[in-house]
Each structure stands twice: as C-alpha cells, then as structure tokens.
Automatic annotation (TrEMBL):
This is Bis(5'-nucleosyl)-tetraphosphatase [asymmetrical]. Residues 1-141 form the Nudix hydrolase domain. The keyword Hydrolase applies. Keywords: Hydrolase, Nucleotide-binding. SUPFAM superfamilies: Nudix. InterPro entries: NUDIX_hydrolase-like_dom_sf (IPR015797), NUDIX_hydrolase_CS (IPR020084), NUDIX_hydrolase_dom (IPR000086), Nudix_hydrolase_domain (IPR051325), Tetra_PHTase (IPR003565).
Length: 148
C-alpha cells in the first residue's frame, strides 16, 4: 500500500514597499529535516488511523512548527497531490495552502527539524531540491498572484 502524508504550504505576507508588487512580499515557510539528507520541506507527516487528510496536515503543522490551526487561514481552492517513490515504495503527499494570520508568529520546531526559513519564491525553490516541490511552490505563487 502507498504511504500517505499530508501537510500545509504556509506563507506570510510582509508589508510591501510602496513601489513593489504585493506578491513580492510573500514568503514561504520551509523546515530543514534533522535526519537523512537534511532536505527542506513544508510541514507534513503521515496520516494516523481515524484521521482525515486535512486533520493530519494541521496536526503535523502543530507538531513540527508549533503553529495552531487558529493561527492560520486555510486558502480555499488549492490542494495538490505529489506522488513519488520513497525507498522503493510509492508515496502520496497532499498539500493545502495556508496563510499566517500574524506574520510575526514564532515558529517552534520539533526534534524532527533543525532549522526553518521564511523564503521568497526564488530562494524557496533553491532550498527545495526536488523538482516536484519546486513546481508546486511556483504553482502556489501563480495561484496567489491570480487572486490579487
């Protein structure tokens, strides 16, 4: 059976400079794992028995980044599934999009991660070494731009 995980792509909006576009003020949260290759990823994790996918995404975000569901606004209309093999087994990861209500909220990492960064799209894509993750971040950014 395929491994299933769920998570949130979390972004915040900084106060844009008067001359800049609103979308230039968007930063994405990436966490650096404290295991394996120390890759960078949005908060995500495996679905527990009896949990639905969205519950998993919020639980994992709380466990890995210390963010409560009440501190986030789920953005309607965006949901993305990524499919890739992990140790020879198929894995599905479902992501939703959520905005920080307060861009100064503190991030509290669990032992699963050793660092976090708020990154503009270009830097987020550099940190996210997997092509499907880079493509998803660009897609999210386009989605947000189209809503302005």
């Amino acid at each position: 059976m395929a491994v299933r995980a769920c998570g949130l792509i979390i972004y915040r909006r900084l106060q844009p400079a008067p001359s800049s576009k609103v979308t230039d003020s968007i930063e994405y949260l990436l966490l650096q794992t404290s295991y394996g290759t120390h890759h960078w990823t949005p908060p995500k994790g495996h679905v527990d028995p009896g949990e639905d996918d969205l519950q998993t995404a919020f639980r994992e975000t709380q466990e890995e980044a210390g963010l409560q569901a009440s501190q986030l606004t789920l953005i309607e209309g965006y949901r993305k599934e990524l499919h890739y093999p992990v140790r020879g087994k198929p894995k599905t990861v479902v992501y939703w999009l959520a905005e920080m209500k307060d861009c100064n909220t503190e991030i509290k990492l669990s032992e699963e991660h050793q660092a976090f960064q708020w990154l503009k799209l270009e830097d987020a894509c550099k940190f996210a070494e997997y092509e499907d993750m880079q493509a998803m971040l660009k897609e999210v950014h386009q989605f947000l731009c189209s809503r302005e």
